[in-house]
Amino acid sequence: MKITDVRTFLYANPDVNPRFGPILFVRVDTDAGISGWGEGSTWAGGSALIVDYGLRQIRDMLIGRDPSEIEAIWHDIYRRYTYMGSRGMPTQMLSAIDIALWDIKGKDLVRPIYDLLGGKVRETVPVYANAWWPDDAHEPRDFAEAALRTVELGHQAMKIDPFSEMAEAFPGYVSGEITPEHESRGIARIAAIREAVGPNIHILIDAHGQYDVPSAIRVADRLAELDIAWLEEPVPPESHDALRQVRENTAVPICVGERLFTRFDFAPILERRLADFVMPDVCWTGGISELRRIGALAEAHYVPLSPHNAAGPIQIAAGSHVGMTTPNFYRLEHAMNWIPAYNAPLREPLGFESDFLTVSDRPGLGIEVDEDYLEAHRYLESGTVG
Ligand SMILES: [Mg+2]
């Protein structure tokens, strides 16, 4: 089998906040009539457009290659960009291709991808909810009521960034400080949520890498009293020493990884015991191949894998196949309010059932993309995105 074409599709989803920019799909075609789908969505600063451009640059190096040689192609793309820095934008386009090649392999062998990765270790994939509160939520009671509704739907774990002051500037980081008023407002929101949902629900806090060390430690200590399940990216991703300083000075579990790329970024985090959970993004860190490898690396340190998701449905599907076959798996992220948006470009909806996801046993990713939807919602570049 040979690759005959690589095509990208940028589409805008009207149900998702335009701040997130367009979703980027890639379709890899073969001379066997099998096509595989991948996703390279990324956001802020028009980065999906940059990845789209990058994917068009590697089209020629892929045409004529055997799509079954996923590992060789992975390394060829990764090393091609070693002078500009392989981790980041290059691993995002690499991720899209890797996912599409696994889809092709599964369709060719008529097996779901999780079967090719070693077979299932669970029947369904546990998920946690993000984006479960209404856009106009402001007061602690608004979040408490939404949290209770989310639990009543069956969810056992939910994530939020309650510190809206810095969220408005996201992904910016300037001083790393938070005002006492906004800090107390965020803590009050979490306290109200904890009181509403009781002690057994996992509350995950996303700090979005926006704090300096003293702010992160102070916020973490206040959150520890509310028994949160993790504090995510308490400091920006560059400094392991800063992360260690936070970790050694607070009791809350720490999660990092959406801005870490490939096993090479995760190895020191795990070796130095800097996180209790790791959260690679399958569309950013190197695809299904790399998510599986990072999961195994984490397993050797008894650390759970919990993939980050903030984009489209192929990202969800790709992560769910790894979730089916990874023993040390916590939960797969999804945005609860986006489920209609995830399903919009698919002919069959994803198998969300509140607290878990049922993964299709059809060949490959087990999804069928509606190309008419992609065409009808084609993203027209009209200035900056995100
Ligand atoms: Mg995050």
Feature tags:
binds magnesium ion, single chain, globular, 386 residues, four-stranded mixed sheet, TIM Barrel, 2 domains, alpha/beta, Enolase-like, domain 1
Question: Would you mind describing this structure in some detail?
Answer:
With 386 residues, this protein is α/β, with parallel strands linked by helices. The chain folds into two domains: 3-110 and 370-376, Enolase-like, N-terminal domain (Enolase-like, domain 1, 2-Layer Sandwich); 115-358, TIM Barrel (Alpha-Beta Barrel), CATH 3.20.20.120. It is built from 15 helices and twelve strands. The strands form three sheets. The protein has a five-stranded parallel β-sheet, covered by helices on one side. A four-stranded mixed β-sheet has the order 10-4-12-11. Strand 8 (254-256), helix 11 (262-271) and strand 9 (277-278) form a beta-alpha-beta unit. The two termini are 39 Å apart. The model has no long low-confidence stretch (mean pLDDT 94).
Q: Gist?
A:
This protein is of the alpha/beta class and 386 residues long. It has 15 helices and twelve strands. The model has no long low-confidence stretch (mean pLDDT 94).
